[in-house]
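From: lab user (bench 3)
To: helpdesk
Subject: output format question, protein + JHZ

Hello, I'm new to running complex predictions and I'm not sure whether the block I got back is the full result or only part of it. Here's what I submitted:
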Amino acid sequence: MNKKFLDLGYQPLANRYLRSFKKLSKTKNELYKLTVSFNTKTKLVSLINKIPDKKMFNSTYPYKSSMSQTMISSFKNLSIKIKKRFNPIKFLEIGSNDGALIKNFDKSKVVCVEPCSNLAKITRKGGYFTYNKYWNLNLAKDIKKKFNNIDVIYSANTLTHINDLNQVFKSISHILNRDGILIIEDPSFLECIKKNSYDQFYNEHIYIFSALSLRNLINKFDLEFFDIETLDTHGGSLRYFIKNINNKKIKIKKSVSKQILKEIKFGLKRFNTYKKFGTSVKKSKNDLINLFYNLKKKNKKIIGYGATAKASTILNYCGIDKNIIDYFVDTTPDKVNRFMPGKNIKILSYNKKFLKNIDYIFLGAWNFKKEIFKKEKNYIKKGGKFLTHIPFPKII
Ligand code: JHZ
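Helpdesk reply: Thanks, we reran it on our side. This is the complete output you should expect:
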């Protein structure tokens, strides 16, 4: 049974950055209700209203994984680990984005799947075999015909974006070698609750996995975890290593039961935990609005750093516009000179001159706080301050 625990109001498409500001309307279907539910049986957290994938992932998808040094080095380290630990002959990435991970692999070994044509173009240009298609059973069958079974399948921040999870895992099972490895990496719901990072919810994130919910899902396809790593990336993620249950050559590590127990102890099996999270999100909203209003009363100039999908949720849920945040800065070319989704706040190309004569920077990309603080050490040295809502609204 699905039980609602979070209502984030009406939201625009999170990665749709318009060239000129336009007030969006509910009736024209430019704003979508963003509500979240918990399934008491499967423990899966999912959006109640789902948007067709073609509306979100098409030829103009702006997000590029290579825009952060943190992700570049995380992917580099992972590639070294995959080669050392599994040494795949054929490696498939579902949701290869701009190739941030696969560029660390030999071209002849890699198959990419990427539904956004602007991104698929990049990996193709780099010489990597890329299917510009959505991940589904037909595609898995095509890939199997051409390449046979795959040794290692990897997918980061992608499977949670696909509505039909049964088809996702059926397709993976169809193509994965009997001794093959599946590696999935996504934000952890436990971390989301701990950090009160409700901005992990936007229309693209149809699901946020916990180890508990993902275990229930994969078990249906004779798959099981054999290792789980905790990562700092994207605000606290889990990297799940998965194998076929009949593959007895690989031992199941303690990290699996450790994570499952941690989640059970925290209460991730109980609806009440989710309900409480819903209540603290409301408090976080009020506290953030108060923080902004108090600073604006003192005529402080505030800008945003990192025009993230997450920030889109915050701005639209908390009703923050140009009267509060003058502009955002971002390094992504496809976001620059456009507007934050649903709001009249312009995104400027990242340049240190835009950090001058301001009082506060709101961290849209709070998940890259370490990287940003390192980059902006001069701003900090001169007394520059940041604002964040993680884990609660505050000045840093
Ligand atoms: P970042 C996206 O969410 C969307 P977002 C997607 N649905 C998903 O699941 C996650 O990613 C993984 C900029 N930046 O990664 C670059 C700077 O300008 O938090 C990006 O626009 N300067 C696929 O959008 C943004 O911030 C910097 O120094 O919430 C970061 O976006 C750094 C480090 C980043 O994801």
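A quick orientation on your result: The first strand starts at residue 2 and ends at 11. Let us know if anything else is unclear.
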